[in-house]
Amino acid sequence: MKLDVVYFAWVRERIGVPRETVETEAATVADLVKELRGREERYDLAFSDVSAVRVALDQTLSHFDAPLTDVREVAFFPPMTGG
Amino acid sequence: MKLDVVYFAWVRERIGVPRETVETEAATVADLVKELRGREERYDLAFSDVSAVRVALDQTLSHFDAPLTDVREVAFFPPMTGG
Amino acid sequence: MAVRVQQHDFDLGAELTALRAGRTDIGALVSFSGLVRDDSGDLEALELEHYPGMTEKALAEIEAEARARWDLNDSLIIHRYGPLKPGEQIMMVATAAPHRKAAFEAADFLMDFLKSRAPFWKKEHGVAGAAWVDAKEDDEAALKRW
Amino acid sequence: MAVRVQQHDFDLGAELTALRAGRTDIGALVSFSGLVRDDSGDLEALELEHYPGMTEKALAEIEAEARARWDLNDSLIIHRYGPLKPGEQIMMVATAAPHRKAAFEAADFLMDFLKSRAPFWKKEHGVAGAAWVDAKEDDEAALKRW
């Protein structure tokens, strides 16, 4: 399947792009992260401490165990600091 | 001694004047109230339920047991409803 | 840090702008304004009586207490008196602080004490007559929070 | 009830005036505004990044939750993004309610959830370089209050 993967803040800076399309068969977010980390060092670095990374699926906050079934957009970012 | 006595809100309306000078030897606020109630019915009516009346001495909230020594202005009014 | 007791209306936006003008040490600005509410449509005017002299003194004391308890950059209390129409502004408090929590808590505190310790009394003038507004037991109880 | 995410500044006073315009059912109006704070004088700009699409969705959900929990007449959330200078307004929330408690609590609630659930990230650009602002553990803990 094809996923739009988007990155924000320092996750975006470490990975080097704000958005990319990823061809993957990952079943869950955790699987996707594992797959990305195996690809290149910049991904490995960005996801080295996943406790510092949050994930949203189709623009709704989710978690790393969540399945990717029917998901079109996955977003990774640090804890939010608005307000 | 001479005291300025001021009234607000429904206490003022029942007594009929906003301010008056009272010649009294009352030792405490409670004594003053007792003395006023003995004078005329309008005072008796205004102070019939002192639990509904607050008192300030020289513009500071006080209580009915407080002495009137060195006090120049006594104010009687209902519980406050600002804001 | 200021207290104003006045008959005329105030410009909430201008007051909030003035509080932060030229400063970069404020992180949070909270305002509360009280308005004349008339759900039923029966209210013709809300009359506010106060105790000149004691009002300013009481408000200044409440404000000083807030400044002692919280780290505030600045604060402002404006309270009107006289007859007010439905929808009009009755009063405002504003608190400016480096941090959000202090600004919120101090504004809440100012309102709690202002309600029960500043000598204002409200009288509602309606189509069916006039009546003094009763103090709420809740208002006195609210002081115990602090 | 409105949410606006924008780069340009907003007029806090005009927004608060608009919220109450022509109404007589509001008793209490609370506003919070967040400002770019720079105690040290070292901050050149605060950059706000956000997640277009999700931001509006998250803010609308937070606002709807506040409207469900408290009796509010109206509410407003405005949040800016892009580079901001020290002293500039970052965001505002406003709550209008018949009663004071609801207006205060709902504004406090909006801020708590906005801080930790709306996808904004702050980066400080200073004389010595740039750094992303860390989320505070307190902010996450604050959600448990509600």
Summarize this entry quickly:
Chain A has 83 residues and is an alpha+beta fold. Chain A has helices at 9-15, 29-39, 41-46, and strands at 2-7, 19-23, 54-57, 60-61, 73-77.
Could you characterize the architecture of this molecule?
The complex is a heterotetramer, with two copies of chain A (about 80 residues) and two copies of chain C (about 150 residues). Chain A contains three helices and five strands; from the N terminus they run E-H-E-H-H-E-E-E. By secondary structure, chain A is of the alpha+beta class. In chain A, strands 2-1-5-3-4 form a five-stranded mixed sheet. The mean pLDDT of chain A is about 95. Chain C starts with a strand and ends with a helix. The mean pLDDT of chain C is about 95. Chain C has about 150 residues and is of the alpha+beta class. Chain C has helices spanning about 10-20, 55-70, 100-115, 135-140, and strands spanning about 1-5, 30-35, 45-50, 75-80, 80-85, 90-95, 120-125, 130. In chain C, strands 1-4-6-2 form a four-stranded mixed sheet, sandwiched between helices. In chain C, strands 5-3-7-8 form a four-stranded antiparallel sheet, with no helix packed on it. The interface of C and D includes residues 24 and 86 of C. Strand 2 of chain C pairs antiparallel with strand 2 (about 30-35) of chain D, so a sheet runs across the interface.
- How many alpha or pi helices of chain A? 3
Strand arrangement, largest sheet of chain C? 1-4-6-2
Q: Gyration radius of chain C, to the nearest Å?
A: 16 Å
What's the total number of strands of chain C? 8
What is the first-to-last residue Cα distance of chain A? Answer: 36 Å
Write the topology of this structure.
The complex is a heterotetramer, with two copies of chain A (83 residues) and two copies of chain C (146 residues).
Chain A: E1 2-7, H1 9-15, E2 19-23, H2 29-39, H3 41-46, E3 54-57, E4 60-61, E5 73-77
Parallel strand pairs in A: 1-5
Antiparallel strand pairs in A: 1-2, 3-4, 3-5
Chain C: E1 2-6, H1 12-20, E2 28-35, E3 43-50, H2 54-69, E4 74-80, E5 82-84, E6 89-97, H3 100-117, E7 120-126, E8 129-132, H4 137-142
Parallel strand pairs in C: 1-4
Antiparallel strand pairs in C: 2-6, 3-5, 3-7, 4-6, 7-8
Helix pairs in contact in C: 2-3
